[in-house]
Structure formats: C-alpha cells, structure tokens
TrEMBL record:
Keywords (A to Z) from UniProt: ATP-binding, Nucleotide-binding, Transport
Pfam families per the UniProt record, alphabetical: ABC_tran (PF00005)
Family the UniProt entry places it in: Belongs to the ABC transporter superfamily.
Name this protein carries in UniProt: ABC-2 type transport system ATP-binding protein
GO molecular function: ATP binding; ATP hydrolysis activity
InterPro entries tied to this protein: AAA+_ATPase, ABC_transporter-like_ATP-bd, P-loop_NTPase
Keyword hit for Ion transport: no
PROSITE patterns per UniProt: ABC_TRANSPORTER_2
Residues covered by the ABC transporter domain: 5-233
Keyword set includes Signal: no
C-alpha cells in the first residue's frame, strides 16, 4: 500500500509532558483517515508537527515518502493543504474576493477559484460578505483557502466542531466530494466520534499522545459487535436469566439492555415469561463507533 503520511515513534514534549508519545500512524493514499481521540489526546499537536508549525522532539515522519529531515520536505509540503487554526478571513469581502486575496498572496493564478467555490458549496454566495456567513459557511471558506494550492493531501483539524446539524451535513458532503471527485487524501481529526462514522475509510484511535489502534472502516465494522437490544419490564430479572445462560450483556436502565451473546429469541422470551419478565421491544443493533472506542480506552468519554 502507498502511504501519504507515515510517522514512526513520533514524540513531542512540552517540558516533561509528552503531548505525543511514540506515535505511529499510517495514512493510505486516497483514504479519508479519521483521527479519533478525546480532548487533549494530542491530535492538534500531531497536525502542527506534520504541517511544520512545531518540530518533533524525537521520532520521524514522512510525507509523500519524503522524510522530515530531508531538505525536500519544504517543497513537498506544497502538495499539502491544512486548516489548523481558524483561518483569517476578510470579513468585508465576498467568498470569491477572499480567495483572490489568497491566490495573490501565494502568487498563483486564480482561474480555478470558481471550481473551488463549487466544491465547497459556496458557488452561489455572490457578493455576500464573509462576515454575514454562517459558521458552516466560514468553515468551508477556510477549507477553500487550503484548496487554492491544489493539494493532494488535505489536513483538517476538527472541521465539524461547533457546527449545527445542517452545517455538519454540508461539511461531510464536501469532504466526500473532495475525496471522490478530486482524489484528495484527507486526514480529519475529531473528538466527536459518530461524526466520523460513515465518512472515514480508515481510523486511528489516539489516547495520551499514542495511537492505540489503527484499522480500516471494514475492520472496524467487523470488530463492532451486533447486539440484541431489549426493553423489558425489569432488567434485574433479565440479568438473572442471562446469568443462568452464561450470556454476555450490558444493562442501561431498569428497562433497557444489550445482549451480546447470540441466542435464539423464543427460548429466551419463554424463560423470561416464566419469571414474570415481559419483553416490550426487541431489535438487533450494531455497536456504535463511540461504544467501540469506549471499550478500547475505558472510562467515560468526555466529548
Ligand atoms: N504549547 C503547549 N505547551 C504545553 N502543553 C501543550 C501545548 N500544546 C498542547 N499542550 C498539551 O498537549 C496535550 C495535547 O494537546 P492537543 O494536541 O491540543 O490535543 P487535542 O487536539 O487532541 O485536543 C494537552 O494536554 C495539551 O494541554
Ligand atoms: Mg485539538
């Protein structure tokens, strides 16, 4: 497999604190790579190191196969676009005029700007000034900035953070378009896990500056267990019956539970009925990305 970004035991220390601790990550060419971790896990630190805003303390990384200590890295970084901090927009200018400023600053032609505006879904904003944009529109204009240099690799630090549901859908669709129509490899970080599911093709789970698990969406799908979700009148009785069967389960409330051990439904319902435990509803469920991550790291998710 060809990789756009690889890191090898990357460390970044602030004083004695290791914000990145032997972090190893592999971003395949053509992927949408979801970097998932709680607040403070080290996501922004990693992005700052690979974009050149910070130097690593030790370890190495390569971008498009070029190592971080290679003189060619600076030139290679031109193939990468990133939105790390909120980019500074000109509030009194339209989306297109903002982009024209950006092309001037970079000394490149502005012939592709209409294409870029279309890609980020801002083609119809005309003379509307950036200061009157919604947060989602501003976020997408920020991403448009990073597209001006025609990148093959796009790095987005929590692009969905703070958006309303409509804004989330728009940014997700834009990310899909950039990946599918333009073939851009995308690294996207988030602490809100379910925003990345159905979007990412690969995942890296990061905790305390370390990647604890890397997997493809397919592998994740297989790893997430299917459960039988039940609503009953008394989960205490349910637990008693399931214990008797040696089944694995999780109780959520006096009425709700998930049963993980595959089993026949009829004998279970009959056994429950005998003890006056009545089943209200029953449905098959797929474990969510959130729940899988919780199982990996343990503890309460603080997102
Ligand atoms: N400049 C800095 N000086 C000291 N500590 C920092 C600095 N930047 C980040 N950190 C610490 O490094 C850890 C990782 O931060 P960060 O990469 O921003 O996490 P994330 O983006 O996953 O929320 C946090 O504990 C944070 O407080
Ligand atoms: Mg961050």
């Amino acid at each position: 497999m060809e990789y756009i970004l690889q890191t090898q035991k990357l460390c970044k220390k602030y004083g004695k604190f290791k914000a990145l601790n032997d972090l190893t990550i592999n971003v395949p060419k053509g992927s949408i790579y979801g970097m998932v971790g709680r607040n403070g896990a080290g996501k922004t630190t990693l992005i700052r190191v690979i974009t050149g805003l910070n130097n690593p303390t030790s370890g190495e990384f390569s971008l498009f196969g070029v190592k971080n200590n290679d003189g060619k890295l600076l030139e290679t970084r031109r193939k990468m676009g990133a939105v790390v901090e909120t980019p500074s927009l000109h509030p009194e200018m339209s989306a297109k005029d903002n982009l024209i400023q950006q092309t001037k600053a970079l000394g490149i032609s502005d012939e592709k700007l209409d294409d870029i505006l279309k890609l980020v879904g801002l083609a119809n904003t005309g003379k509307k000034k950036a200061k009157n944009f919604s947060l989602g529109m501003r976020q997408r204009l920020g991403i448009a900035f990073s597209l001006v240099g025609d990148p093959e690799f796009l790095v987005l630090d929590e692009p969905i953070n703070g958006l309303d549901p409509q804004g989330i859908i728009e940014v997700r669709e834009m990310i899909m378009r950039l990946n599918q129509e333009k073939g851009i490899t995308i690294l996207i970080s988030s602490h809100i896990l379910d925003e990345l599911s159905r979007l990412a093709t690969h995942y890296g789970f990061i905790e305390h500056g370390h990647v604890i698990k890397e997997m493809s969406a397919e592998e994740l799908d297989k790893a997430c267990r299917t459960s039988l979700h039940v609503n009953v009148n008394d989960t205490n009785i349910l637990a008693e019956v399931l214990n008797g069967m040696g089944a694995e389960y999780r109780l959520y409330s006096p009425n709700e539970a998930d049963i993980f051990t595959p089993m026949q439904v009829t004998p279970l319902v009959l056994a429950l009925n005998e003890k006056n435990c009545f089943v209200n509803t029953m449905s098959e469920r797929h474990e969510s990305l959130e729940s899988y991550f919780m199982g990996l790291v343990g503890g309460v998710h603080n997102g």
